[in-house]
Design brief:
F420H2_quin_Rdtase, Pnp Oxidase, Chain A, Nitroreductase family deazaflavin-dependent oxidoreductase, oxidoreductase activity, Split_barrel_FMN-bd, alpha+beta
Length: 125
């Protein structure tokens, strides 16, 4: 059960307005800076992100069809504001993983309750 469009709309209007002030420095969060596929406009999307050996992994709690995911995949790259630093990333890759192995153990359990199995892998520049 990936989070519904209704929850996504609420988060975009309310939760993200708060998160955008802390996601660039708070542990477990980052801001994905990406350009719209059609508009070319810059967007900033707060996400839960975790480090991997060569980059980052993002749990796709709204599924792989979220606009920001499509934008990053189309561009092949984006910037993460992670712990107050701009980090260039590339090689965006969608991964379906029922075991959620790239995530820390407590996060795996929460994602299991939400039935999240899709992730975006990003490699550092």
């Amino acid at each position: 059960m990936v989070l519904s469009k209704r929850v996504a709309r609420f988060n975009r209007v309310a939760t993200n307005q708060v998160l955008k002030h802390v996601a660039g420095w708070a542990p477990g969060f980052a801001i994905v800076v990406h350009k719209g596929r059609k508009s070319g406009r810059e967007f900033r999307t707060p996400v839960n992100v975790f480090r991997t050996k060569d980059g980052f992994v993002v749990a796709l709690t709204y599924g792989p069809a979220a606009d920001w995911v499509k934008n990053v995949l189309a561009a092949g790259r984006c910037t993460l504001v992670f712990r107050r630093k701009n980090v260039g990333v590339h090689g965006a890759e969608l991964v379906h993983d029922e075991s959620r192995q790239a995530m820390p153990v407590p996060i795996r359990q929460v994602l299991g309750l939400l039935d999240v199995h899709d992730f975006l892998l990003l490699k550092r520049d």
